[in-house]
Amino acid sequence: MGRRLIPVFATLAMVVLSCLPLIAQDCSGPAIRGSFLQPTLGDAWTLEQWRDEFQYMKTARLDQMVMQWTADSKQKTTIYPSGIAGYTQNTKRDVVKRALDAADASGAQVYLGLQINDDWWTKYIMDRPWLDNEAKIANALADDLWKRYGRHGSLTGWYLAFEVDNVASTPAQWNNLVSFYRTVGKHLHKLTPGKPIVISPFFNSDAGLSPSQWQTMWEYVLQRSPIDVLALQDGVGAAHVTKAQLPEWFSAVRHAIEDSDPSMQFWAETETFISGYEPRSIRSIVNDMCAVEPYVSSYLSFSFNHYMSPQQVNPLYYETYLDYLATGKVEHLPPTAPSSLTSVALDSQTIRLKWGASTDNVGVVGYAIYRDGRYVSSQRDGTTTFVDSQLESGTTYTYQVWAFDAAGNHSAPSNPSTTTTPEPHLYPTNLALGRPYTATMPADPGYPDTGGVELTDGILGSTSFADPAWQGRATTKMYSFTIDLGSAQSIKEIRSNWLQDEGSGILLPQSTICSVSDDAVNFAVVGTVKKPAPGDGTLSLWYTLTDLRGINGRYVQVEVKPGSNAEWTFIDEIEVRH
Asked: Which domains occur in the chain, in start order?
């Protein structure tokens, strides 16, 4: 759910859609009871949409909403009109009031998250003074929220939004966490007696403490902390773990709770998203709940509201989930295979696919595109075309397409279609080599632009993010680089090299926008490169605008649009060619 630092923390990585044979449902019965909501989504809803959302939840047997945060203590912003000195509201509406009003009318429960702070991913539990100060902020925030909204019957409890993981740590650092939990927990219990406090840790099976070591950590922390509910993120949607590994991790936390505070509630937080923040299939969600059913008493989700609600995604996901609730089983009939797949090269970097639509007993929600036997992308907008871009020139590619429904059933593959991209025009001179440049956002200190020359030194990084050729930034904000070519030049090609390592939370930019200027003030856009679909592997990839005509300028600007969830973007080179 949150951003993780590389390499110390496991970052949010992605699970791609795999067209596997039909997998039987493990059990019947478990149902999601609650959902995390990120405030930006709630801020976009009208009053009618808020009321509709709680009705959708009620029909699907959900009666709990966790507002993931109400403030950002780094940015000093809130999602409601707060009375905290120095803080300003950064939402258009009072999101807290709208949530509580709608929940009051629906009979639902709301847990209010306190603050987030992006520095958590670097400070973590190692920085006691920082954490102590955050505890004071949390208490002041809770006082303000209770003063404003305590009259609402739906205000059920509190959520502490700092997500603790299984990064290797020491008892001394555990004590820092205990101090934070005690300071905030005791204050909340005194302020609002009987209202539970929820935390939601996560784990990565490939790094950090083992399940048994993590059990020891939580035994230590929970024995000393006034926490009421531990809602463990299952991590499958984020690719931190496989379903088969869930019992070992959930069993460890279950034992930690039993050994420290048996009255504490243990819930699962079931992840409902996959690669690119798209909905997971209903069968995979149900199977993950089944895998942890022996250990937990209830299920939250991240997130029904974002990835299952008919207000946000294809309503077939919601309809399929309701059918599961009614029957106890997820429907199993696959769609028909896509027909008449064709592929045509549009230029040296681009191939367009087209196929005949599939049918399904409930409805097709998308198509999975495979290139040379590897997953490339999913098409979920109802169209039966796909443009594969930023390909290698002079290369032969073979494609197949599968249809899938909301349940997780996959069709047989389409016919294969093979196409070769033509050879490119070659532009041998790199005008940017060794030239100075500026950046509107500095690189992260952990992955710096060493010497301020990395982008034009001609040194390409390997596919390891630890390679010093790469520089990294973790942000949702756009940033840009401007290269001074020294004099006006005729420009035929602009390209930048990016890293993808989804397991480490390094994702390709959503787009790059290339512009030129004679004075470094007035820039003219020459083109945009949208995020291609290279598949789920670890790789480096050029974003290229080529065969430019009539483009001249001294300054070249590459503006970068990252993803929407503050993952990392890593770049190692920009070239301007003639």
From this structure: 34-327 (3.20.20.80), 339-420 (2.60.40.10), 437-577 (2.60.120.1190)
